[in-house]
Write a structure and sequence with these properties.
This protein is of the alpha/beta class and about 300 residues long. The protein has 11 helices and 10 strands.
Length: about 300
């Protein structure tokens, strides 16, 4: 006959011990979760804004070395860096809004490219970036951008265009909401739909959408923009994923012209375009049949 095996049970004292251990472990995990969520909320500006700063004297000297001047003032209240090519007549003024890292001084390749096509270029600087005074945040950046557009229109007249990349697209869209009447066209390179949706996709384990202070709601900000609008996507973009851009495109009241750059990502897309591409893009944005580089 086979003997039946007795059911093995844990000693009475061990069951509460295991439960207490699991409860403590759960408490630690929840505590870490809350702490990480709190870190994202408290330090979100450190995650979003990565400014390069320097003294006013260095800004002035470096600008001159690159054929630029601080504009419209030479103090810390300047709004951007002006690149005014000698070739005349000009096709208009482009205000360029850069991404979240570095400063306007790091984007001279944009002013060089657009100067060659016959545009005056203002590399817009954000508060707390470069040598510019002010505070970080959507309200501050948008207000400074609106001031730059208003000043440029008063000083240089029509036509005015906005070109922006990455975070700058969010800023430019916020600016365009209040200045669209003086703008003739806009080009957005790797834009998103809303910052809360972007943040939620980047940190899906947290209720990031509800923790985001700045909104940069480009869908709402562009709903009444009826001038030529170009949008550029980098097919391999892992920072601002294409679905964020296509979601924006799908909710616009107008159909923008979309260029998709294959085999490049968020930070190397510029290497995939040439002068002919810029001629095509800016011809659309400016509603000009053809653009030729100036000598």
């Amino acid at each position: 006959m086979y003997r039946m095996k007795k059911n093995r049970t844990l000693p009475k004292g061990r069951v509460p011990s295991i439960m207490m251990f699991l409860a403590k472990l759960l408490g630690i995990v929840l505590g870490l979760y809350v702490l990480l969520g709190l870190y994202i909320y408290v330090f979100q500006y450190r995650l979003l804004y990565l400014p390069r700063t320097y003294t006013l004297e260095l800004a002035q000297s470096t600008a001159l070395e690159n054929g630029l001047i601080l504009w419209p003032t030479q103090d810390s209240s300047y709004l951007g860096l002006l690149s005014d090519p000698p070739t005349r007549p000009l096709l208009g003024t482009v205000l360029f809004f850069h991404g979240n890292a570095g400063s306007a001084m790091d984007r001279t390749y944009f002013s060089d490219t657009l100067n060659r096509l016959g545009f005056r270029v203002i590399l817009v600087e954000y508060p707390a970036y470069g040598a510019k005074s002010g505070a970080l945040g959507e309200a501050s950046l948008a207000a400074s951008g609106i001031q730059a557009v208003t000043q440029a229109h008063a000083e240089f007249g029509d036509p005015l265009y906005l070109v922006a990349e990455s975070l700058g697209c969010g800023v430019a869209c916020a600016v365009a909401r209040d200045t669209r009447d003086v703008l003739q066209g806009m080009l957005l390179i790797t834009p998103w739909d809303t910052l809360p949706d972007m943040a939620q996709q980047k940190y899906p384990l947290f209720p990031t959408r509800w923790l985001t202070k700045d909104q940069y709601h480009s869908i709402d900000n562009l709903k009444d923009f009826e001038r030529p609008l170009g949008i550029v996507m980098a097919a391999q973009d892992t920072i601002i994923r294409n679905e964020r851009t296509t979601h924006l495109i799908g909710h616009l009241t107008q159909d923008p012209h979309v260029w998709t750059l294959p085999d490049v990502g968020h930070n190397d897309w510029f290497s995939a375009v040439d002068g002919q591409w810029w001629q095509e893009v800016m011809a659309y944005v400016t509603n000009v049949e053809t653009l030729e580089p100036r000598t």
